[in-house]
Structures are given as C-alpha cells and as structure tokens.
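User: I'm writing a tutorial on reading structure tokens. Could you give me a worked example: one chain, its sequence, then its tokens, then a sentence or two explaining what the tokens reveal?
Assistant: Sure. Here is the example chain.
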Amino acid sequence: MTDSTEIDAVRQRQQVVEEAVMHLQHDVSKLNAALVDQQFQLGRIQRLLQDVDERLQRIDPERSEPGEKRDPLVEKPPHY
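And here are its predicted structure tokens:
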C-alpha cells in the first residue's frame, strides 16, 4: 500500500469509530434519562407506600410490625 492509501484507510476506520462512539453516547444518554425517570417513580412509590402504611397504622395500631409473622389460626376474630 502507498502512504495515501494507508492514510485513507486510517481515516475511514477513524470515521467508523467516531460514528460508533456517537451512537454509544446517544444510547448512554437515553439510558441515563430512563434511569432518572425510574428513580423518580421509585421515590414516588416509596412515599405512597409509607403513606399507606401510616394510614393502616392509624386504622389498626395493633397490627404487626413489618417482618413479624402472625398466625391467623391463633388470632381471635374481630367479633370476639
């Protein structure tokens, strides 16, 4: 190969690499936006869950703590 042919080949490879990098940057940007949106939604769901938990606590203050196992066969029904 001559020098000009080699230079053209290198330039062509460089262009391919730069295009690939541009596409990757675009994909990373879209993934970042999706992640930010998911974090927002997760925060909203956590706040809603906390609100529901607080409401349930006001309705039934004696309900079990998270993770505490209750045996429905041992508990008395509410009409007893």
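What the tokens reveal: The chain is about 70% helix and 0% strand. Residues 6 and 73 are 82 Å apart (CA to CA).
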